[in-house]
Amino acid sequence: MAEEPLVVLAERLQELCLRLGVTVATSESCTGGLVCSAITDVSGSSGYFRGGLVVYSNDAKVALLGVPAELLDNHGAVSAQVAKAMALGARARLSADLSVAVTGVAGPGGGSASKPVGLTYIAVADADGVEVRRFLWAGDRLANKDSSARAALQLLLARASTRSGPAAEEAAK
Length: 173
Prior knowledge:
Layout: H1 6-20, E1 24-28, H2 34-40, E2 49-54, H3 58-65, H4 69-75, H5 80-93, E3 98-104, E4 119-126, E5 129-136, H6 141-160, H7 165-172
Parallel strand pairs: 1-2, 1-3
Antiparallel strand pairs: 3-4, 4-5
């Protein structure tokens, strides 16, 4: 079974978020904006997508998302802790209901014994908290980026499907 193209996942996310009145933000490191690009490839994404930040350097993570420097020093940029802080920072900075963060080692260089090429953490945050997932991709750089973006969109879809959103809450009154 072939994987859905990123744009198809983004179309599904848009339909769900618009129906529920849920806004979305992204913060990306190793994917370099690929999640944001997939979302904005769909016409009408401005109806729910608040924006995205590509925070490749540690300095950008601190300055733009408020990731504590101590987290980066103690755990490294590729960690569950930093992914969580990135997701929370994007959600707060862009005033979104739901946010996703991606940080990892796309390759081919940059890996180590403790953080091999393909290691990626993706966090999704909303008002109920943050969920972080760990992945270990086995592709080349472009395949790893694509796999990470696909997983990020799938996690956004899963989390959005559990949200009632402002529109649904208003309708229930």
